[in-house]
Design goal:
Layout lengths: L2 E5 L5 E7 L3 E4 L8 H5 L4 H9 L5 E3 L2
């Protein structure tokens, strides 16, 4: 799984999870505000797997 920080059009930093090569899932609605906090959580792999199956907003990659 690939995670990243990205900047929105209104200059807000968000955390994203790659969905294929053309889009990111915005993890902000799931309360993810920091890559460090996510990686240091009890089971980040399971958490990311659950998030990848949830109904989060998609951000297209340019």
């Amino acid at each position: 799984m690939k995670i990243c920080r990205y900047l929105t059009a209104d200059n807000q930093v968000c955390i994203g999870l790659a969905k294929g090569d053309n889009a990111l899932l915005d993890l902000s609605p799931a309360g993810i505000e920091s890559i460090t906090a996510l990686l240091e959580s009890d089971n980040p792999t399971e958490r990311l797997a659950d998030l990848s199956e949830s109904d989060l907003p998609e951000v297209p990659l340019a």
